[in-house]
UniProtKB/TrEMBL annotation:
The lineage of its organism: Eukaryota, Viridiplantae, Streptophyta, Embryophyta, Tracheophyta. It comes from the Eukaryota. This is Uncharacterized protein. Residues 119-159 are annotated as: Disordered. InterPro entries: Homeodomain-like_sf, Myb_dom, SANT/Myb. Keywords: DNA-binding, Nucleus, Repeat, Transcription, Transcription regulation. Residues 146-159 have a biased composition (Low complexity). GO terms for molecular function: DNA binding. Residues 9-66, 72-117 form the HTH myb-type domain.
Length: 293
DNA sequence: AAGAACTCCAACCGCGGGGAA
DNA sequence: GTTCCCCGCGGTTGGAGTTCT
């Protein structure tokens, strides 16, 4: 026994919306404010459409704050990282991108971003298997700011620790930070600091969006841990955006969450972007990016 | 120039969750 | 506790537009 249809599909119009229909819906919402009953709306607004269709049209197209197209590299990163972290929870991902809708983000991912990620994944694999001498050149990542790389005593991951080439697996290297690789990490840090000391530009506390973007472009997408790249149907509970970091998240001492991690990568993002990703209260002195605070 | 192939995205569909009765 | 109804979500589709051959 199936579910009763929400409306009489035979008697309502379907397909693309006309400007007149858009205006009817827009003016109704403008007059009456937030819609409490979408099923009743078509009759009240004089639109011969299914209520669900009206809701979708409003949410995805007519809302005044909607942005279409023109995704920035920062938004790409947010989408990739959140997709990696939580999967195809488009409404949640879209909620972190002001002006974007779940449908828009989903379409963007399916039509463009996924291909971009796959292309970079393939490029990385070629580079990995054939060596740098034969590989399609992958641009050298820009220097990572030392503050990125400072491991936290209480919690850290390769996402913010290692500074080697693999360290550019910043969105999901699979090896978590551990005390045993701290020395190596510090060596990498020193290397990066030296490199940057030699450079004219001093290390910024965070990369500018442009630097962050190019950095993201150059990072190993292999390490982004995209589920389709690793053949994972579901995300194991211990795996998340930052690879083995998930296990750290399960550690009650570890205060870090996507919010905090994201804040490391997108320091200029609006605070409310991450507002509903609540970290557990950090113990004193603990934190993923203590040097950044 | 024309048809095929591909890309993009608005819209549809069915399902699950949650609140009200 | 159960049923009903609506909302919101994620997956999928259809078709317009664009690029390729």
């Amino acid at each position: 026994m199936g579910r009763a249809p929400c409306c009489d599909k035979a008697s309502v119009k379907r397909g693309p919306w006309s400007p007149e229909e858009d205006e009817l819906l827009r003016s109704y919402v403008r007059t009456h404010g937030a819609v409490s009953n979408w099923i009743a709306l078509p009759h009240k607004a004089g639109v011969n459409r299914c209520g669900k269709s009206c809701r979708l049209r409003w949410l995805n197209y007519l809302r005044p704050d909607i942005k279409h197209g023109g995704y920035t590299e920062q938004e790409d990163l947010v989408i990739c990282s959140l997709y990696n972290s939580i999967g195809s929870r488009w409404s949640i991902i879209a909620s972190k991108l002001p002006g974007r809708t779940d449908n828009d983000v989903k379409n963007y991912w399916n039509t463009k971003l996924k291909k971009k990620a796959m292309a970079m994944h393939n490029q990385h694999h070629y580079h990995h298997h054939h060596g740098p001498g034969r590989a399609t050149p992958i641009a050298t990542p820009p220097p990572a700011p030392s503050s990125y790389m400072q491991p936290s005593p209480a919690s850290a991951s390769s996402a913010v620790t290692t500074a080697s080439g693999d360290a550019y697996s910043s969105f999901g290297a699979t090896t978590a930070y551990s005390p045993s690789n701290q020395a190596q990490t510090q060596a990498h840090l020193a290397h990066y600091n030296n490199v940057n000391a030699a450079a004219s530009a001093p290390l910024a506390e965070f990369p500018t969006p442009a630097v962050a973007s190019s950095w993201a472009i150059n990072m190993a997408f292999d390490d982004m841990f995209l589920p389709e790249l690793v053949g994972a149907g579901e995300f194991p509970s211990g795996e998340d955006l930052f690879g083995g970091f998930g296990t750290l998240l399960q550690d009650s001492r570890a205060p870090s969450t996507l919010q905090e991690l994201s804040a490391c990568y997108f320091p200029n993002a609006q605070a409310e972007m991450w507002a509903d990703v609540k970290p557990p209260p950090p113990p004193p002195g603990a934190g993923l990016c203590p040097s950044l605070t």
